């Protein structure tokens, strides 16, 4: 009887140990812009090829926006942007004409047009894009980190706007490509 009780206690302890072990799943951040303690959803992204720079590299626009922001196309090109919502915009330099290079892009205040730099970035909140109103902030420093996961990009933004407040963003998803050169 003593051995049976001892064995039963060991089995019970093993059950408790294994029941307490859970898979540590990584929590995926939401697709969102953050500014001044506020969170704004973003749901889609565009990558627009503008042409090649004489210094080398490809000029591109990265535009991440909320669902309410619409793109009007004409002949496979962007005709206009309208709707109400939020967006973050970067002019950047990539080595590829039709994709973003993986790695870290840094703010280029001097317009050196080097690969993996960005310039003229801004963010807008609660904007009516047809009327060009809403909260508009130029970004003055920061970085954009780009990773690829199959057809999806994983983009993380950490910048500072003109009032010294942080603007961060996370986006995981595809980018719709337009060649506007």
TrEMBL record:
The lineage of its organism: Bacteria, Pseudomonadati, Bacteroidota, Cytophagia, Cytophagales. It comes from the Bacteria. This is Lipoprotein.
């Amino acid at each position: 009887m003593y051995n049976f009780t001892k064995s039963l206690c060991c089995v019970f302890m093993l059950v408790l140990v294994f029941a307490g072990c859970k898979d540590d799943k990584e929590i995926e951040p939401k697709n969102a812009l953050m500014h001044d303690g506020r969170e704004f959803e973003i749901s889609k992204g565009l990558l627009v090829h503008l042409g090649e720079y004489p210094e080398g590299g490809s000029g591109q626009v990265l535009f991440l926006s909320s669902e309410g922001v619409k793109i009007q196309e004409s002949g496979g090109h962007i005709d206009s942007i309208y709707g109400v919502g939020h967006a973050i915009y970067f002019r950047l330099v990539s080595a590829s004409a039709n994709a973003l290079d993986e790695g870290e892009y840094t703010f280029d205040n001097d317009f050196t047009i080097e690969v993996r730099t960005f310039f003229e970035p801004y963010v807008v909140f609660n904007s009516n894009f047809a009327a060009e109103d809403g909260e508009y902030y130029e970004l003055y420093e920061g970085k954009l980190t780009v990773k690829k996961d199959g057809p999806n990009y994983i983009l993380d933004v950490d910048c500072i706007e003109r009032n010294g407040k942080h603007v961060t963003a996370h986006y995981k998803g595809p980018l719709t490509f337009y060649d506007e050169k």
